[in-house]
């Protein structure tokens, strides 16, 4: 792993754990299953319950019906095709994480007590939102902030740790934006799973270029 044992453990500063999109629709049998997504639920729950972090938060995909990222919103298109949307490539997804649906809830195995904040994203019907920090590009190429960066800074957070689903989309984009916002960013690789099982090398390269450090949960200490 491209991690740094010294100085990568929580508890040495103001640290936040961000659990990305741990929702039933991303589990095997869900509307948009991530292979092996269920395998990270229990270890993430254990990590939360250890209270190693200054604060912990979870994100939720929370889409309205007819969201433009859904293939069903584009006649003749199929899930996983790519189109141009607002001048950038957009993967079209099966309908998933519809607001108020059981598939959009946080996974029942995720303990609620350690969570300081639940951040919902993807609510604008015209714009997708992989990252917890900013929307995907909308009209005019603008990416709208969610307010998470200010929330963390007001609480003195300097370092963020990322886990959840999916490694090659929402977790990756959140990590890249966290680093761009100036947070020291750690990607807990073994507590993520990808949509594309062949994406690992490309994801690692993107994270390394952005200054994101990859580590294993075993290095987080007790």
Describe this structure in words.
This protein is α/β, with parallel strands linked by helices and 222 residues long. The protein has a single domain (15-64, 101-220), classed as Isochorismatase-like (Rossmann fold). 18% of the residues lie in helices and 22% in strands. The protein is built from 4 helices and 8 strands. The strands form 2 sheets. A 6-stranded parallel β-sheet has the order 5-2-1-6-7-8, sandwiched between helices. Strands 3-4 form a two-stranded antiparallel ribbon. α3 (167-180) packs parallel to α4. The longest helix has 14 residues, at 167-180. The radius of gyration is 17 Å and the shape is globular. The two termini are 20 Å apart.
